[in-house]
Amino acid sequence: DIASGLVGAAAASSNPTEAHRWLRGDSHNLTVAVSDAVASSLTFAFYYLAQNPSHTTILRKELEAINDISASALQAHAPYLNAFITEVLRVRPPNPSGVLRQIPKEGVHVGNTYIPGDVTVCTPFWAMQRCE
């Protein structure tokens, strides 16, 4: 996981004080990045529930019938909740901009389009999840 990589790099450093500063800064950045994505996702989830009270009713009934609210139990016994979360993340991805990828030297064909090699491309998640 990310934390073990950060801690391992800090432990291997020849300058513990500097390594601790970097570790603290990296940990802070990760916390902010994750909380921002979670906040965005929760905002849209509650927005869609407020716009569609019937979905809120269905979710409430599904959750009231489940005694164990652990993540594994919800994954196994709350199909509507899982579908709702998946759909919120599809429609409103926390990081809509996508990730960068480097095209191999020989280039690639995507459908009828040729993309030359050594080019950096980005397909935004928001657009990709609406492609038919």
TrEMBL record:
InterPro entries: Cyt_P450, Cyt_P450_sf, Cytochrome_P450_monoxygenase
Family: Belongs to the cytochrome P450 family.
Record has Oxidoreductase as a keyword: yes
Gene3D superfamilies given in the database record: Cytochrome P450
Pfam family, one: p450
UniProt cross-references to PANTHER family, sorted A to Z: CYTOCHROME P450, P450, PUTATIVE (EUROFUNG)-RELATED
Organism, scientific name: Lophiotrema nucula
Record GO terms (molecular function): heme binding; iron ion binding; monooxygenase activity; oxidoreductase activity, acting on paired donors, with incorporation or reduction of molecular oxygen
Keyword field contains Iron: yes
Protein name: Cytochrome P450
